[in-house]
Amino acid sequence: MGFYKRLNYITDKEGDNDQTIFENIKILSVEYDKDVYYWGEKVIGIVTIQNNSNNQENLWLGYSLLDPLNNWIDIHPKNVLLSSKETATITMEYILEDGMITGEYSAVFALWDSFPIDENSMRITDIEIDKGFRI
């Protein structure tokens, strides 16, 4: 269910005349453990991330859901430490609250260079899933 739309960001960090380019860090795929969920169930998103750089990277994986009425639900991000040339699978979970709007939910998974709410954090790459699951 759903389809992917990749948005890749190549960003420069300012400071000390040093530039870091994140073009070698990618979200390869996202899968949900099933297509239909019910209130009180745990939605499990399985995210595969690849670090093709020569450096270890300390990243943050953000996750937001878009309900059928176009309201965003932000799920607490996870800190991800990837070694050079490492591919990792990360599980993001969210328990559906009773009374949530029924219908199709879309999602955005994004990698950030620091905690996403921080003023200077930069989005490195993300992937959008249109109609990823139903309630």
Automatic annotation (TrEMBL):
Source organism: Anaerobranca californiensis DSM 14826
Q: Which Gene3D superfamilies match?
A: Immunoglobulins (2.60.40.10)
Protein name in the entry: DUF4352 domain-containing protein
Question: InterPro entries, per this entry?
Answer: Ig-like_fold
